[in-house]
Amino acid sequence: MENKKELRNWLDDFGLDHPLVIAGPCSAETEEQVLKIAHQLKDTDATVLRAGIWKPRTRPGNFEGVGALGLKWLKKAKEETGMLTTTEVANANHVDLAMENDVDILWIGARTTVSPFIVQDIADALKGTDKTVLVKNPVNPDLSLWLGAVERFHTADIKNLGVIHRGFSAYEKTKYRNNPEWQIAIELQNKFPDLPLILDPSHIAGRRDIIFDLCQTALDLNYDGLMVETHHTPDDAWSDAAQQITPAALVQIMKDLKIRKEVSESEDFKNKLNTLRAKIDVADNQLIDLLSKRMKISDEIGRVKKSQNVSVLQTKRWNEILGNMVLEGEQHGLSEEFILRLFKAVHQESINHQEKIMKA
Ligand code: PEP
Ligand code: MN
After folding, report:
1. Residue 53: CB within 6 Å of ligand 1?
2. Which residues are CB-contacts of 21 (< 8 A; sequence separation ≥ 6)?
3. 231 in the Ramachandran plot: left (φ > 0), alpha (ψ -120 to 50) or beta?
4. Which one of 38, 265, 278, 294 has the largest count of C-beta atoms within 10 Å of its C-beta?
5. Alpha-carbon distance 260 to 46, whole Å?
6. Taking the CB of residue 318, how many other CB atoms lie within 10 A of it?
7. Which atom of ligand 1 is nearest to the CA of 239?
8. How far is ligand 2, taken at its centre, from the CA of residue 143, in Å?
C-alpha cells in the first residue's frame, strides 16, 4: 500500500473546520438511550454517532451487546438527527446486518485486528464497498499487525479507510487502561501521512479525568479526529461506565482544546513546531520510562550482589559497558563526549540505588 492523497477523501468531504468527532455510548443499551444520546449530540461538533451492538468482552459474563435489534435504533437516530452512524463489526454476518441497516462507517475492534484470518473474512465480505472502514490498533503493541489489517482492506478495494488509536494492553498496571505508546501511532503516521488517524481516548484512559489531556496530545500530534465514548448517564452505563462522559462534557472538551488549523505562514510554522514538540515530549517520557526500568534491574543486581557479599563497583564490567556504548553511540550519530557524560550519570544513579539496597 502506498500513501495516497485519496486515502483522506472521505474525511475531507465532510469539510469540517475542526477534527472529526465520533461520539456515543460504548454500547447501545435501549432504544430510548440511543435516541437520547443522539439528540444530545445533534448540535455539537460530533458528526458521527457510535454505539457498540456486539460487544467483544475479554471475560464472559459481561454485557455482550443487544445484537441486531440495536441496528434499528441507530437507523432511527440517524433519521431523527441527521448524524452518521458507526458500529463495530467482528465477522461477515455483522457486516451484512450493518449494511442492511445503513450503518455508514464500520470499525474493526482491537480484538479483531489481532487476527489476520478474521480480518480477511471481513475484508472479503466488504469487498469494493464505498463505506468507510476504520481499523483499531490491535491489543498488542505491534505496528505490522495494524498495518497488515489496513492493507487487507485496501487490497479488497475499500478506498475509504482510516485508523483508530485506542492504546495497547500491558501486563503491568499503569495509569492507563491501555498504554498509548504514542510512538507506534507516530510511526504509522510517518508511513501513511494521509491515512486519517483518530484517537480513542476513552479506551486508553479507562477513566474520564484524563480524556482531555489525551485529546490535546493527539491534536498536537496532528491527529484527524477523536472517538469519545459518551453517555447521558455515564455511571449507569452497561459497559465501560468509568470512562464515559456526558455529551455536555464533550462539548466543554471541544471548547477547551487548542485546535490548530493550517492558515497563515507563521501559523504553519507554529503548527510544525508544536507537532515536533509533542513528539519530543513523547520521546522524553519514553526515556524516563526506560531509565526507571534500567534502575529496577540495577536494584535486582544489588540484591543478588548483597546475597553473595560482592562489592557494588565492578570496574571491569563498567569499562566494558562504556566502551560498547561509545561505539553504539557513534553508529547512531551521538558524540563520544555525550555518551560518556550520559552513562557516567546513569552509572552513578545505579550505584546509588545499589548502595541503598546494600545498606538496607
Ligand atoms: C469499543 O469501542 O467499545 C471497544 C470495544 O473498543 P476496543 O475494540 O478498542 O476495545
Ligand atoms: Mn467501550
Report:
1. no
2. 44, 45, 46, 47, 48, 225, 226, 227, 228, 250, 254
3. beta
4. 38
5. 18
6. 15
7. 3
8. 22
CA distance 184 to 170: 14
Closest C-alpha to ligand 1, atom 3: 26
Binned at pLDDT 50, 70 and 90, residue 1 comes out as confident
- Give dist(CA 12, CA 9) in Å, integer: 5
DSSP symbol at 228: E
**What was the pLDDT predicted at 264?**
63
Domain ranges of the chain: 4-256, 267-359
CATH class name, domain 4-256: alpha beta
Alpha-helical (H) ranges within the chain are 9-12, 31-41, 69-81, 92-100, 110-113, 116-126, 143-155, 182-191, 201-205, 211-220, 247-256, 265-308, 315-331, 336-359
* CA proximity to 25, closest of 93, 109, 112, 86: 86
pLDDT in the model for residue 60: 79
pLDDT 10s digits, 166-221: 999 988 888 999 999 999 999 999 999 999 999 999 999 999 999 999 999 999 99
* Protein residue whose Cα sits closest to atom 9 of ligand 1: 110
Instruction: State whether residue 136 is helix, strand or coil.
Output: strand
Mean pLDDT calculated for residue range 336-357: 91
Cβ 204 under 6 angstroms from ligand 1: no
pLDDT of amino acid 263: 57
Least confident of 63-77, 79-93, 303-317: 303-317
pTM of the model: 0.83
Answer whether 115's CB lies under 8 Å from 139's CB: no
CATH number (1.20.59.10, 3.40.800.10, 3.30.70.120, 1.20.1530.20) of 267-359 reads: 1.20.59.10
CB 40 within 8 A of CB 23: no
Distance CA 244, CA 236 (A): 10
Q: Is 59 helix (H, G, I), strand (E, B) or coil?
A: coil
Give the closest ligand to the alpha carbon of residue 56. Answer: 1
The average confidence (pLDDT) of the chain is 93
Locus of grid cell 483518530: 198
